[in-house]
């Protein structure tokens, strides 16, 4: 009996201190080349692993607009047709600049890329590559994002 009460107490205390998930928006940027779809991946600034452009919501922009803004800043996507609705979401743990970890729920929008620019805000900090959706799925770490990419 004491174990059950202790377990319930621990669950309540942990829930009290657990922070809610933060929201980010992300962009799966794609293009058609010779009849085949290609997806744009970029490297993260911290670890250099392959990711898609993503970031915090932007004041004055809706979620699809914020996803396009992130695609511009992080990958040089100048213009494209953005999905009005999220095509999926994935969750991951992010370490903030303060060192604290935070759970993040990321809404994913697609962008059919019309125009790219080589000179963009984070050009010197990232590499980018165009790959098939299947290859992209094998290059990212988050299982839910892998599923989204495979569905492309």
TrEMBL record:
SUPFAM superfamilies: Nudix. Keywords: Hydrolase, Magnesium, Metal-binding. Its cofactor is Mg(2+). One of its GO terms (cellular component) is cytoplasm. Residues 20-152 form the Nudix hydrolase domain. It comes from the Bacteria. InterPro entries: DDP-like_NUDIX, NUDIX_hydrolase-like_dom_sf, NUDIX_hydrolase_dom. GO terms for biological process: adenosine 5'-(hexahydrogen pentaphosphate) catabolic process; diadenosine hexaphosphate catabolic process; diadenosine pentaphosphate catabolic process; diphosphoinositol polyphosphate metabolic process. CDD domains: NUDIX_DIPP2_like_Nudt4. One of its GO terms (molecular function) is endopolyphosphatase activity. PANTHER family: DIPHOSPHOINOSITOL POLYPHOSPHATE PHOSPHOHYDROLASE (PTHR12629), DIPHOSPHOINOSITOL-POLYPHOSPHATE DIPHOSPHATASE (PTHR12629:SF0). This is NUDIX domain protein.
